[in-house]
Structures are given as structure tokens and as C-alpha cells.
Write a structure and sequence with these properties.
The chain is mostly helical. Helix content is 52%, strand content 2%. A two-stranded antiparallel ribbon has the order 1-2. The relative contact order is 0.09.
Length: 182
């Protein structure tokens, strides 16, 4: 029987299943949450005297974690499995707000959108490993970028101050235009 971060057992009768589109993150290196799970235990309303310090220490450990991004995706995609605890440096209320903003931005099936984006990114990485660009193609791509003419930014008087040099240049242009018109 597995246990949640708070130490409560996850029983088979809970009928709680992880979303298969976002896999649970695994790391070849030891992570702080595996070494000290008590540090990451947190329930809303916990007002013990060491709560703030423990949360800060857990968040600092998550900032150094190599799988924090994947952990956050998994925690957000599985709200039934993460109603308590600190996951990827977030407390439950922060995860609720993140889910709400993801739903507003990407729609109700935001998990599918994120999973599809991750799948495409992994395919591109794999394709780059299998067929890396050769030196000639890389050099041609750089040359193409160099040959693309870059237009100067338009003069925006409300953003740039009028300098004496700019005033002199404007005066020369105006006098040259007046001479041509005469």
C-alpha cells in the first residue's frame, strides 16, 4: 500500500487514479522529498510554530530539484492525489490558482494541451539527436540570418529625447528639402 506525502495511506478503495497523460516524474539522483518526506507534509490550516520554516526549507529544496518542473505538471494534473503537501515548491492553494489560470488560458482540457506540447518537444529533441544538422547546414542557416536585412527601428519622438545632434540632423534635412523645392 502506498502512502501520500502526509503519511496517510492511499488505499485501493479510494478510486483515485493518476492522469496517464502526465507521467509521475522520476530522477536518477536522490531528491529531497524522497529523503525527508516529513519536510514536505502540509495541510491547509496548519498553524504549528515551525510550519513557515518547514515550507521555506521545502521550497528551497524544490528549487534545486532536477525534476521540479515535471513534478509540478504531475501535481497540477492530479488534484485528487495532491490535495495536501508541498509539491514542486507549491502549497495546495497555489496549485488551485495555477489550475484555474491554466483552465482560463488553455481550456478545460489543459492537461491534454500540455501533454501534447511535451510530446512534440520530446519528438523534436529525439529527431535532433538522430539527425543532427551537419556543419554545412548550420553555416548556411547562420548566413541566411546574416543576409536578412534588418530595418532600423522607426524614430519615435515620444520615446526618444531630442538631442542636439538629432536637432542638427533634422535642420540639415529641412534645409536640403527647401533648396530642392526652390
Amino acid at each position: 500500500m502506498s502512502r501520500s506525502r502526509t503519511g496517510k495511506p492511499n488505499t485501493p478503495g479510494d478510486n483515485v487514479h493518476a492522469d496517464p497523460r502526465v507521467p509521475f516524474p522520476h530522477s536518477p539522483t536522490p531528491t529531497a522529498c524522497r529523503a525527508e518526506p516529513a519536510r514536505f507534509a502540509y495541510e491547509h490550516g496548519d498553524t504549528s510554530e515551525d510550519t513557515d520554516g518547514r515550507i521555506d526549507k521545502a521550497k528551497a529544496a524544490c528549487r534545486r530539484c532536477p525534476i521540479a518542473e515535471a513534478c509540478l505538471k504531475w501535481a497540477l494534473a492530479n488534484p485528487e492525489l495532491t490535495p495536501t503537501g508541498i509539491w514542486a515548491g507549491t502549497v495546495p492553494r497555489q496549485r488551485i490558482n495555477l489550475r484555474r489560470s491554466l483552465t482560463e488560458r488553455l481550456g478545460e482540457d489543459w492537461v491534454g494541451v500540455v501533454a501534447e506540447s511535451d510530446r512534440r518537444r520530446a519528438e523534436r529533441r529525439q529527431a535532433a539527436r538522430i539527425n543532427p544538422p551537419n556543419i554545412r547546414d548550420g553555416a548556411l542557416a547562420r548566413l541566411e540570418l546574416e543576409l536578412i536585412p534588418v530595418r532600423p527601428a522607426p524614430y519615435e519622438p515620444w520615446r526618444e529625447p531630442m538631442t542636439p545632434a538629432r536637432q542638427a540632423r533634422n535642420r540639415q534635412v529641412l534645409l536640403a528639402a527647401l533648396r530642392e523645392a526652390a
